[in-house]
# Entry
Amino acid sequence: MSLYTGKTITLCEVGPRDGLQNEQKILSTDEKVCLIERAVSSGFKVVEVGSFMSPKAVPQMADTDEVFRRLTKAPGVEYRALIANMKGLERAADCGCVKTKLNVSASETHNLKNLNCTPAESVARFAPIVEAAKEKKIEVSGSISMAFGSPWDSEIPVSTVCSIIDAYLAAGVTEISLSDASGQAYPGQVYDICEEMKKRYPEVKFWLHFHNTRGLGIANILAGIEAGFTNFDSAFAGVGGCPFVPGATGNVASEDVVHAMKGCGVHTGIDLDMAIETARRVAEAVGHPTDSSMLRAGRADRILLRKE
Ligand code: ZN
# Structure
């Protein structure tokens, strides 16, 4: 029996945020609500709905408040959104969003150039936001982009990632996502970093977030599972990209991950056919073919025979 068989993982559908924010075409609020509700009916228990950033900077996410208001929230499902500052937190509170995520880039070069401080110093500045969130009963998680490599540095030392996690913990954030927005992670590296993180930070609830830029998204998820990680992000139809990274594709496609996990005997709780149908609608809505193996080739027949 493979080491994956019988394991259970949780997938977060990040397509509505990480995917659609990088698409040229801006979907209507109704289209977004419909796709999110479909993702939830297919079995997703965590969804990244949008972000509360400046509408000028990210016009695709300008209606996140409205999406939150219109969504019929299913019980037991976590609907989260990205925030960057106090204004974002206030918008979250106003539309009933109770789970937020802050982000910092692990690239010192990028951070020093843009914000004139180290990534850990950036995170320390989040402390008042986390404090204010507590009063509003809003949960705050943190993410670290470029945790596995960046276009601006020859490498991202694990010590840098640890200094950022330490800063998050000091600010009161214990749920942290390690993100590979630049699509540079590879399975051996993922396994080693996950092992290290588990040893150093047993109190942290980790997420892994892989883009499929170099075709290693699913292999990286399997490496994470092998190291004992259970929370992963994916995006319907594999939509998205990364504005800073040339040639970057979106997150690994949700339906491809569900298909691969089904084949490996890993339980996701997500209905594969429904996930494929959602992906088809997403690709239709954005109006171009996306990085989805399921949409291109369909499910492998033998998968039909395997029971969850
Ligand atoms: Zn991403």
